[in-house]
Amino acid sequence: MAVVTAEVRNTVVKRHRHPAAHGEAPFGFAMIALSVLFVAVFTAIPIVASLGLSFFSWDVISTPEFVGLENYQRLLHDGPVLKSFGVTLGMAVAIVVLQLVLGLGLAVLVNQRRLIWVRTAFRTAFYLPLLASTAAVSIFMGYLFDYKFGVVNYYLGLLGIPNVPWLTSGFAAATTIVLIAVWQQVGFTFVLFVASLMSVPTDVLEAAQIDGAGPLRTLFRIKVPLISPTILFAAVVALINAMQLFDQPYIMTKGGPGSATTTVTISMYQKGFQNLQFGYGSAIAIVLLAAILVITGLQFLAARKLVFYR
Amino acid sequence: MIRSTGTLARIGRVTGLVVLVIAAMVALGPLLWTVTTSLRTPAEAFGNPPQWIPLHPDFSNYSAVFDRIPIGRFFLNSVIVTGLIVVGQTITCTLSGYAFAMVSFPGRSVIFGIFLATMMVPLQTIIIPVFVIIRYLGLSDSPLSLVVSALGSAFGTFLMRQYFLQMPKELGEAARIDGAGHFHTFLLIYAKMAAPAIATLAILNFSGFWAEFYRPLIFLQSQENFTLPLGLVGLQGNLGTGSISVVLAGVVLAILPSVVLFIIAQRYFIAGITAGASR
């Protein structure tokens, strides 16, 4: 018996020192094989291929032709595509800021409720829009914000406000799409912040209360710093998503009126899949990816000063 | 003094409740309008004021939507595509997540590092090569293209790995001593314990892929292959603004499965959202 235990202990120790020698390696490779195959073919290789394709001119049918940096030079002088980067950035920043501010505000208010069923009810209400697809949301919001027949303009009319061209005039359309995106996605930041606020220790809050700190002071001096890592995470994820904004403008305005809501992903779709310029489309994709990485990097840099890690 | 702060606090709490109620009305209003308008007759559907309470619900739109477009077909396509992705990704991610957490093999950290790096890259920025690969595989315009290109997931692998990392290694060692093979140890001990993480991943994937619009738009051309979101947008185009109540009936049918699942498994939805944040 004692011998067996010693042997077991020996094996365990050996396992930690020479893992591969214990014959685990083939099992490990077999276990990751499927994931590696699919991630390689449909994610890793396409990343490299996207970069590679951006140096070619290709219409899918004929042989690709190497053109060096031509696609990028073209992009630098392509007014409409450059504008789409500006449109995307403007809408993305607006969406993220509203999502963070409203999500945090609602989370703080919900966490103040003492009754659990009240909290659950509000949480469900703010989460429900996330369950609908962006396509479904774009369809019914398109009706609600219709210029002539829309319910929104009907109620505004009752208040004596003339019809607003929600989706049919440039700036208004971009604003409306921002609001619709925020309406649907505020539940995401809200749920994150509710969970995070619950983890703020009550003794800290009680101490602040005893010291005479009001609710606003407690919020900005204690709660926000304590949940700042979650705020950073929410900001990063929300911005990466918002930079890819496609469904709502594609379905509701087709990028219009004019090019007011043509986001980068819409211009990429037009160049790549409608005009079959796969090289140029890839160049736009690579610049978008670079922009996303730079902005995410900036967020983490800013976080060094602003985020408080416990 | 004490009483005045008490009154202030009470005013604050009441104001907070009022704000929350208004916010909830804004969040739910458009959804409620969608449901109630889908129950109005096509002729009435455009009439304002909207009917917030369906006093005389008219269910004809729900049969009309099946007559006008192949919504049954779209529904079936969506069920098959989403179902296969959910099952497939659960398998691939559970296997690889376990291996990256619990099994030692050469190159493990390098390969996992590559997985992590790909997580940073959004789908839209690599969609052109993915489309080209789909074409080479002969899967253009097939719902299977949506499935095959979503079977692996770096994020899902990461999620499962994080969960397995918390599990004690001793359990597996004990089982191994009892003569269980590597795979049996994984399947009978660890995979069972990972059920909550598997449920979270499955629900995250269901809600994501059920609602997906972008890849179907790019991969599919024939109407009979469309999934629900793509088909509904087409329906809106076909009918123009003729009878929005029919379109909205389709929208309600498309949202319903997600809502039902949410009611059954609410905590896994929340877990899915918070999973990425808590590292």
Span of the ends, CA to CA of chain B? 45 Å
In sequence order, what are the helices and strands of chain A, one letter per element?
A: HHEEHHHHHHHHHHHH
Which structural class should the secondary elements of chain A be placed in?
mainly alpha
Largest sheet of chain A: 2 strands, antiparallel
Question: What is the N-to-C order of secondary-structure elements of chain B (H for helix, E for strand)?
Answer: HHHHHHHHHHHHHH
Tell the overall outline of chain B: globular
Total separate domains of chain B: 2
Please give the CATH class of the largest domain in chain B: Mainly Alpha
CATH class of chain A: Mainly Alpha
**What's the count of strands of chain A?**
2
Give the CATH superfamily of chain A. Answer: MetI-like
Q: Outline the biggest β-sheet of chain B.
A: none
Instruction: Tell me the helix content of chain B.
Output: over 70%
**Low-pLDDT segments of chain B:** none
The fourth-level CATH homologous superfamily of the largest domain in chain B is: MetI-like
The greatest interface between two protein chains, and residues involved on each side, is: A-B, 100 and 96 residues
Beta-strand percentage range of chain A? under 5%
